[in-house]
Amino acid sequence: MKISRLLGIVLILFSASFALAEGRPDIEKGPSCELCEMSRDKFSHSRAVIEWEDGTETSLCSLNCVAAKLDPAPALKVKRIMVADYDTKELVDASKAFWVAGGSERGVMTKEPKWAFASDEGADNFIKSHGGEKITYEEAMKRAMQDIKRRMQKKPESSSMEKMEPMNR
Fold first, then answer.
1. 44/3 Cα distance (integer angstroms)
2. In which domain, by residue range, is 86 found?
3. Nearest to 62 by CA among 34, 29, 28
4. pLDDT of 153
5. 55: in domain
6. How many folded domains does the chain comprise?
């Protein structure tokens, strides 16, 4: 009797883990950030995928990890960067997303949060609820790169992986 209950609980938990990532095959392919190893499911609202020119992908937890991966410039060329819509958690093209910086929600891998939205309305609603300012994708990347450079200056002897200490776990 106890074994059957235990098996039932294990099955439920196993099924629940697939349900969480359902509709998000990028999380199944890359459950952890390739730089800092944070859970991309837990941070599904900030996750990103770099699609490279050669067809490979890099799974990351946040825009700041994207910036760290791109600095210094990699040998491969970026085809596209996809980021999660803060509200729906669906991936959208980072260059077409509506971006909000700051606000009361704690950022992922950064002190200054940068959130992506699929719609302008989503960004406006976030600002009404949590504050922040609208910025462009270019500005979001610039600020993420500045975050990375500041962190590297604080720990110049560390490798890039060691410099990527999680801000939010």
1. 34
2. 2-163
3. 34
4. 86
5. yes
6. 1
- Confidence (pLDDT) at 21: 45
What is the C-alpha to C-alpha distance for residues 69 and 160, in angstroms, rounded to an integer?
A: 9
Type of residue at 76: L
Contact between residue 113 and residue 86 where contact means Cβ atoms under 8 Å apart: no
Q: Report the pLDDT value the prediction gives residue 157, as an integer from 0 to 100.
A: 57
In a domain, 48, yes or no: yes
Low-confidence ranges of the chain (pLDDT < 50): 6-8, 10-21, 159, 161-163, 165, 167-169
Spatial separation of the C-alpha atoms in residues 45 and 117, rounded to whole Å: 10
Tokens, residue 121: 């309305």
> Residue length, the chain?
169
Q: Which amino acid is at 14?
A: F
Tokens encoding 77: 């060329």
Position of tokens 């941070």? Answer: 43
106 — phi, psi (to 5°)? Answer: -70, 135
Establish if 168 belongs to a structural domain: no
One-letter amino acid for residue 33 of the chain? C
- Amino acid present at 122: G
What are 62-95's pLDDT values in tens digits? 999 999 999 888 888 999 999 999 999 999 999 9
Asked if residue 169 is part of any domain, the answer here is no
